[in-house]
Amino acid sequence: MAQEPGLAAPYAIAAAYCADLLEAGGSDWLNLLVLLLVWDTLKFVLIGPISLLKLIAARVREAVARRRMKRALLSDGVERFDEPALVSLHC
């Protein structure tokens, strides 16, 4: 599954740039910055697939709920009905 670089790419590029500066004799505090940027890169790389799986699970639950509602309405003798719209209970 190929993914676009998305939000992780700038962090990875910045980490590589800071690591290059560090190797070229830069200040030691750049180690901390490189560590922080790599950590943020990993977080963005991992959250993409996780959020996609959560979205798929939510869509499956919604489809199951619609199917159950349709079956319940048909078993109650309702012959024609429109798909239920989302209605806010708070006015």
UniProtKB/TrEMBL annotation:
UniProt entry tagged with the keyword Membrane: yes
Source taxon at top rank: Bacteria
Keywords for the protein's UniProt record, in alphabetical order: Membrane, Transmembrane, Transmembrane helix
Chain segments annotated as transmembrane: 29-57
The protein, known as: Uncharacterized protein
Record organism: Cryobacterium gelidum
